[in-house]
Amino acid sequence: MRITLIGFGNLGRGFSRTLVQKSDFLRRKHGLVPRVVAVVDEFGAVVDEKGLNLQALLKKTELPGAKKGKLALSTIADVDADVVLELTPTNIETGEPGLSHIKAAMKAGRHVITSNKGPLVVAFQELTSLAKKQGVEFRYSASVGGAVPVIELARKQLAGNEVMEIQGVLNGTTNYLLTRMGEEGAPFDMVLREAQELGVAEKDPTLDIGGIDTACKITILANAILGVNAKLKDVRCVGITRIGPDAIRLAKEAGQTIKLVGVARRGLLSVAPRLVPLDHPLAVGGTLNAVTFKLDLAREISIAGFGAGPKETSSSILGDLIDLHRTLGC
Amino acid sequence: MRITLIGFGNLGRGFSRTLVQKSDFLRRKHGLVPRVVAVVDEFGAVVDEKGLNLQALLKKTELPGAKKGKLALSTIADVDADVVLELTPTNIETGEPGLSHIKAAMKAGRHVITSNKGPLVVAFQELTSLAKKQGVEFRYSASVGGAVPVIELARKQLAGNEVMEIQGVLNGTTNYLLTRMGEEGAPFDMVLREAQELGVAEKDPTLDIGGIDTACKITILANAILGVNAKLKDVRCVGITRIGPDAIRLAKEAGQTIKLVGVARRGLLSVAPRLVPLDHPLAVGGTLNAVTFKLDLAREISIAGFGAGPKETSSSILGDLIDLHRTLGC
């Protein structure tokens, strides 16, 4: 399988490391021999149609021997690859540069796997229509839930069910903050500072604590699983900045906990702090993510795991890659 | 897709009801038109190669117009079907009658879907080898976890991971008993009687409370996911009969709960009551089942849902059926 990799930052490098470490496993267990024929980052591109030496690339902070310039679009179009992996950073306003990368790949007849929320939030219908028109596969397991294969679980194993509702704890940072407030009885500002020092929260945590990141994921899940045409602006969104340790303590005394929960059902998309019973599968601690599907046959299926981290997210990207290999035989 | 259905008890009828109710959904969403050409129970068989009227069959307590006699094996062999659904009751000593049904189906070149733990516990390797030799598909999602698609999740979406360990709360009855003891502070015998009155526990609850049912499921998971050749006797098994409400209360004070947990890793298969942190995804209440996979990339992925019930279990059987339809195009 010939792969063009777009994005060689934290995730692109993490995934490359996984490919190197697991090459024996992938060949032995799945008959999959991934060959990365091009790597592009924002500064340049390296190409070797016989397959790049990822181990050597990973030792350098810049792509060694790279042609300089913004070469993503021409590399996607010109280098013969079965699959384009789009792993650039997310921009939820424009979807760029991922959106242009994905369109270029599809127009060149290449299958696409992405971890990038931006293009999916901005142009879900456009991209899925384009993939259909071009007869290419389009997978984005890693865009929601990190390592937690929410979308493909719903589409494959739960395919016999009508999905009535999706509820999700989809942001590890806010879940960490709420968990710490519950454990320590410490106020929001204090646990936020602690999380920022630990690198669990970003310097500007607005997208996380304001619920916007969760709203993006709910938008993607609604489109991908419920089949609606939802936009980010359709999500009613309340963050966690007004939650204090007292509220969490009171909830606990009633056998509940407070989680930032995104909800998607036909006619309602929302993100807000909600009470969750302590023994419900959504009541996961720390940075975990969890999703509960309400279903006509299975009633409730919940899945939980780590929603971030380059190695963890590689699990979902690799799951998509193996699935394409099985489906297409390339 | 032509289907022979073996077993027309609680589950066989529940699944038939699901097929009737969801025929539009299956055609519209998945292009799947299931046609049940034979139904066999322990008393007889009905066959119609054009497709039986399931709705009519469901109205009767006995199969109307059935040929009498033990006709399962000849029906499996003689009636032209793509898939045999084996949904007879479990016998974990002999695997019968399911074991003979499954072998007959494979030898006749038919794909097999089963919910039956017995044949898998008794003859996992033999059946998977026979399926391979005969070039047929063999699916058994519903045999472990009811509605919770434990096996296929590990094989498909988590396929890029090495599974280091599987931990499971796999028996709804024991989980219900432990949950009730925790809530009520009531002793084991009392919550057991209550559960028996509600139909959550069987009159003879030995297989559940002794941990044997969980041990069967751990055996299947070890074979299916870890690829070992495990037998039921390899599982070290301790049940929950010695757990009292005091132990659960003490655990709770330490932020933990007690669950009957099955564990499978290379070199260790066990079932025993274990402490689980209250905010861990295995700490699910009531009759829920939950499984946690320890993985090299994703670290931990957990999935939870209802482990029993004919409608819930139909979700897994239908998931297998849709997967065969996609894979084989029949």
Annotation keywords:
homodimer; alpha/beta; Rossmann fold; Dihydrodipicolinate Reductase, domain 2; 2 domains; 7-stranded mixed sheet; 6-stranded mixed sheet; 13 helices; 22% strand
Count up the domains of chain A: 2
Main β-sheet description of chain A? 7 strands, mixed
- Given the helix and strand composition of chain A, which structural class is it? alpha/beta
**Count, helices of chain A:** 13
Radius of gyration of chain A: 20 Å
CATH architecture level-2 label of the largest domain in chain A = 3-Layer(aba) Sandwich
Strand residue percentage of chain A: 15-25%
How many strand units of chain A? 13
Low-pLDDT parts of chain A are none
CATH class of the largest domain in chain A: Alpha Beta
The chain-level mean pLDDT of chain A equals 96
- Interface with most residues: A-B, 53 and 54 residues
Q: Helix content range of the residues of chain A, please? A: 40-55%
- CATH topology category name of the largest domain in chain A: Rossmann fold
Output the helix-strand order of chain A: EHHEEHEHEHEHEHEHHHHEHEEEEH
Strand order of the largest sheet of chain A: 4-3-2-1-5-6-7
What does this 3D model show about the protein?
- The structure is a homodimer of 330-residue chains.
- With 330 residues, the first copy, chain A, is α/β, with parallel strands linked by helices.
- The first copy, chain A, folds into two domains: 164 residues, Rossmann fold (3-Layer(aba) Sandwich); 155 residues, Dihydrodipicolinate Reductase, domain 2 (2-Layer Sandwich).
- Chain A is built from 13 helices and 13 strands.
- Chain A has a seven-stranded mixed β-sheet with strand order 4-3-2-1-5-6-7, with helices on both faces. A six-stranded mixed β-sheet of chain A has the order 9-11-10-8-12-13.
- The longest helix of chain A is centred in the last third of the chain and has 19 residues.
- The termini of chain A are close together.
- In chain A, 56% of the residues are buried.
- The mean pLDDT of chain A is 96.
- At the A-B interface, helix 2, strand 12, strand 13 and helix 13 of A face helix 2, strand 12, strand 13 and helix 13 of B.
